[in-house]
Amino acid sequence: MIIHLPSATSRAAHVAKLCELLPNAQVVEAVNGADAIATGEGHLAAGPVCAPRYPFALSPGEVGCFLSHRSCWQRLAESDADYALIVEDDFDIDPAAWAPAQRLVQAHGDVDSYIRLPAKPREKPVQVIAEDSGARMFLPRRIGLQTVAQVVGRNAATRLLAASPKLDRPVDAFLQMHWHTRQTIYTILPSGVHERTAELGGSTIQSDTPAKAKLAREIKRAVYRAKIATRPQTPR
After folding, report:
1. Domain range for residue 86?
2. CB half-sphere exposure, 53, CA atoms < 13 A
3. Counted domains in the chain
4. Rounded-to-integer distance, Cα 165 and Cα 68, Å
5. Is there a domain that residue 235 lies in?
6. pTM score > 0.90 for this model?
7. Which of 20, 49, 67, 169 could join 31 in a cystine, given CB atoms 3.0 to 4.6 angstroms apart?
């Protein structure tokens, strides 16, 4: 499933390329967060859904991104597929590294899986599950951010839907809360995934923050991340 906002016309040619590259690919129309909020379909929570409290208000882009992933989870939950690859439209691959990563997915993916294929190698393993030609599938101590590419199982999609009827933080921050979602998340690195955001016209989610607000924001972010770090995933 390739999440794509039709108004992001600078990405259309790349999405067409992905449809040729990925087997059984389908484009899932991304949700416009501003429209969802305006019509009351943003599913925004009145307060924190669970601890720790996320310190920032959700932007329309973050709302749209979360709802777009929920749309994919809903499609998957209602399908007969064991699992699906869900990618954002700035996703691209390095074929040499992609091949062993996909062999690990095929060997270990199932209906209960959530396997991250991150573009940035920031996660540290607490338990290695399997290796293939230099690629490792592992349980990360702290789940990384960004959702450019992931393999999601049908049962995992159902759990994530049940845990997110109301939104109080971005989707990647939500996924870090394994104690709330009851979903174990694994990572494969190297993943063979590249993120082409800058080449495709920049982010469709982020917005500029005034310079005077950046320091306060970074302090709040650091405090929040420290709280997340106190709840690591542990070996099963």
Report:
1. 2-229
2. 8
3. 1
4. 14
5. no
6. yes
7. 67
Is 200 within a domain? Answer: yes
Report if residue 42 sits inside a domain.
yes
Q: What does the pLDDT look like over 116-163, one tens digit per residue?
A: 999 999 999 999 999 999 999 999 999 999 999 999 999 999 999 999
Structure-token pair, residue 149 = 């590419």
Tell me if 236 is assigned to some domain. no
Residue 2's SS3 state is strand
- Whether the bond between 165 and the residue before it is cis, its omega within 30 degrees of 0, is no
CA geometry: angle at 122 spanning 113 and 12, to 5°?
70
Q: How many residues does the chain have?
A: 236
Decide if 96 contacts 66 (C-beta within 8 A): no
Tokens 């390329």 identify what position? 17
Q: What are the φ and ψ backbone dihedral angles of 159, each rounded to 5 degrees?
A: -65, -45
